[in-house]
């Protein structure tokens, strides 16, 4: 899927977690999130469909380290030689210095059921991202709550990649991050309010359909409506 009028591409065939490629104006490509383990081939097949080589991937940027977003990152890094970037507070979870994921209630049960099926090879990041940093044209926005170091990646005026901060349902309506799988839902809400002050056409979540037009207005309406999508959105 090529999202119109941007340098952003959604990688097809990734299953229930979204991953994207951004063209970086002479700086190669950035892959944003890598899906579950074994998806590196799908990612590189899509890179090839753009007429590019694995070595053209300059950066792999993770919005957060959960296994359904980082499962293929170590393999993809080896195959491309790309620099790996993640939020500084999440870097120890990706490297193995801390437990990869912690959850409560039903989320803890889900981790137990699916944890064995979503292995992550631990890897050390090359770049630990702070709020306001840049990766090529992407501006890093610290958006904690789902995890300690979750980040969103902003192409000013064009698009924002939000990882699991926000989801969409089958009709494209916005929803907050899963409460059972998130560290702090009040912080999630503060992070959503933070990005709602930005301007962008596309909102690109880690799960669900991208919002491709008028996304910043829809997000502001979502916040104003008490973090619920208005009818018809």
Explain the overall architecture:
This protein has helices spanning 40-49, 67-70, 73-80, 91-95, 106-114, 185-195, 215-224; strands at residues 8-10, 20-23, 29-32, 57-62, 83-87, 127-129, 134-135, 138-142, 151-155, 159-163, 166-168, 174-176, 202-205. With 233 residues, the protein is α/β, with parallel strands linked by helices. The chain has one domain (8-224): Metallo-beta-lactamase, Chain A (4-Layer Sandwich). Strands 1-2-3-4-5-6 form a six-stranded mixed β-sheet, with helices on one face. It has a five-stranded mixed β-sheet with strand order 7-8-9-10-13, with no helix packed on it. Strand 2 (20-23) and strand 3 (29-32) form a beta hairpin. Helix 1 (40-49) packs across helix 3 (73-80). The mean pLDDT is 91.
Order of helices and strands: EEEHEHHEHHEEEEEEEHEH
CATH topology: Metallo-beta-lactamase, Chain A
Got a strand count?
Answer: 13
- Alpha-beta classification: alpha/beta
CATH superfamily: Ribonuclease Z/Hydroxyacylglutathione hydrolase-like
Task: For the largest sheet, list the strands in their spatial order.
Answer: 1-2-3-4-5-6
Identify the CATH architecture.
4-Layer Sandwich
List keywords for this structure.
single chain, 233 residues, Metallo-beta-lactamase, Chain A, 6-stranded mixed beta sheet, 13 strands
Briefly characterize the structure.
The protein has 233 residues and is of the alpha/beta class. It is built from seven helices and 13 strands. The mean pLDDT is 91.
